[in-house]
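Morning, I've got a small favour to ask if you have a moment. It would help a lot if you went through both lines with me. I owe you a coffee for this, so here goes:
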Amino acid sequence: MRPGVKKDAVKHVTKCFGLSIRRACRLVQIPRSTYLYDSRPNDDGEIIKEIYKILKRNSKYGCGMIHLKLRQNNMSINHKRTERIYNELGLQLKRRKRRKKISSENREPAVIPKTPGKLWANDFVSDSIASQRKLKILTVIDPTTNRSPIIHAGFSINGRHVSEILDRAGEKYGYPETLQCDNGPEFRSKELDKWCYEKGIRISFSRPGKPTDNCYIESFNGTFRNECLNSHYFESINDARDIIENWWTEYNTERPQKRLKGMTPIEFESKLNELKTKPAAGRI
């Protein structure tokens, strides 16, 4: 007998014979908790509105990022419910087929310092504006906190420009101890080498053909291209700089990351600084 039929039987017994609900449930053989339970349909309307609001701002977010943004907006929701709504709405992103990776011998893992600001990873990303003129973008990230100290777009960036851009970021946030970069001509230039020597900064070059040595900036560049460069049309260099700066600000202050336990880079950096300055517990 189905639970709905048993509930009707309990109502009939209590009404006709004047028995208590407890005795009627025992006669019909249905738990009293089942009889008293009142099912409520899941109201996903508010969650769907919030999901579309998030996707309107950035259409490249996947299910995991949407869940983190919902939690960031103080919505108490389980990740399974987010995945169910995400699949029902058909919001899955099309992924490229990745080629099979073959593990290389003697791979050197990237060593991340525990203190923020000690290591900066650098790289270049290419794009173009409406006039088909090539755009060159210098990206910088602190792998410890995933915070980007600076990002700069221009038509031509050489070693002197790189040193000037990094000098601006160093004056604002403090200079790193090590620069991680590839073997590009901009990073091997005499101007950048002289600037690093004057500031006491060591340059760590990636091994040729081993982008995994600088994997954190490669991951950042993938996110930057997917969420910013591929989603906008740049009319001019000034338009590109404004859009890129807005995305850069959102990445540092609003975008939660799973690697940072759902915190933004700014929040995670503040957390590390608090733990660093917190006095040790216990008696002396």
